[in-house]
Design brief:
148 residues; mainly alpha; 5 helices; transmembrane helix; transmembrane; membrane
Length: 148
């Protein structure tokens, strides 16, 4: 007979520990999705006003940024429901955010670009840290079938 350790931690305790962390993570994802959507609208405004240097590039940027914003919201919803698949997409996005933020921050542009770059890096690092906390990992790796 196989003896298994008993887990005395009640399920609601895990949920109560993970919920504020998940909400913080979702807030960061909403900020990133909002920033992507705002940038898409800015590029769209530039395209409509005729100030765009390349129509094709502007259309691509609008579609890509709108898709990224939608993807972040969808991944956040999945993560909040306990889905594990969204973690990979969120971590991948955060890596892109760190790279883009560092390019902006260290690129030698105007002060507002440097500030936006470091802000993007800070948000991405905070999101990765929240993703790696044990209560969040436990909450997002649950399965509906009990394993024997």
């Amino acid at each position: 007979m196989l003896i298994r350790p008993v887990n005395f931690q009640h399920e609601s305790d895990t949920v109560s520990k993970a919920l504020p962390l998940l909400r913080s993570l979702l807030a960061l994802l909403v900020v990133e999705a909002g920033a992507a959507a705002a940038f898409a609208l800015a590029v769209l405004g530039e395209l409509i006003s005729g100030r765009s240097g390349s129509v094709g590039v502007s259309i691509f940027l609008v579609l890509a940024l709108a898709g990224a914003a939608w993807g972040l919201v969808a991944a956040g919803r999945s993560l909040f429901r306990g889905g594990r698949v969204a973690r990979g997409a969120i971590i991948t996005w955060q890596l892109f955010q760190v790279l883009a933020g560092l390019m902006a921050a260290l690129g030698g542009g105007p002060a507002w670009v440097v500030i936006c770059g470091w802000t993007a890096v800070l948000i991405a690092v905070a999101a990765v840290v929240l993703m790696m906390l044990p209560p969040v990992i436990e909450q997002t790796t649950r399965t509906s079938v009990q394993e024997d």
